[in-house]
Request: fold
Amino acid sequence: MFEILFLGTSASAPSARRGLSALIVKRDEYRFLVDCGEGTQRQILQSGVGFKNLTRILLTHGHLDHILGLGGLMSTFMRWEAIEELEIFGGKQTLERVHALIFDVVLRGQKPPMPLHLREIGPGVLFEEDTFTITAFPVSHRGPDCLGYIFEEKARRPFLPEKAEELGVPPGPERRKLVNGEAVTLADGRTVSPEDVLGPLQKGIRLVVVGDTGRTDDLLEICRDADALVIESTYLEEEEAMARQFSHMTAKGAAELAVKAGVKRLFLTHISRRYREKDVIAEAQAVFPDTVVARDFDTFTIKRENQ
Reply:
């Protein structure tokens, strides 16, 4: 399963109740910060999640409302907090802007307070662990190098405890070996193979995170059957022409994508201060009922019903 913590949910400029774009995706001991709008370090502290293990930042694009908080975050690391290393992932031009912000404005000739790596990426797998992957994909917004991210569990065969009980496999290391695909020999000499206690192969949870985007037709297959989709909703349909002009999404447009792609849950963020939240949610839910307008510090768990 994955857990999402929204840190900033406002579009372009902060409002009284919403900070600028940032969210954390959690998986086991891993923490991934997606975008880092102005004030993100304060939001991290206020959320109570802290900085531990927050060593990877994934940037959707290089607009200031998505990266300006990197300056403050680096300043915080220089004076108050310590982490072992920091990796920042993004497209070429995004990282050029990040480099100028961090090295020219914040550090100004000083060394980073930790090993700092700017990882230039394009579409494809950027992170892989035993149980999940993170894949970048292209997004259509103003300028090049705009990316979204797929957090996906690897397919697995579920362990069937009732089968293990029937065969007399005791809890403990024997069961762990079976889950890992190894046969075990029991105390009475019988051999139990993984085939005896594992169910059919199941697809893992799939979470898609989209930053700013001006179109959805190129996202349809990427979002197909996703367990959750996080996407911007800067405008309402009444200002759809303005949304098109500035390459942003309306609440209705995001909801229509969720319907076409067969998404299970839709989370809207990047909400303009010009609208009331209830109007945004009403427009989206009229098309896709299982829609949430995220607020700062909202936390959601993305998992299967039987997990």
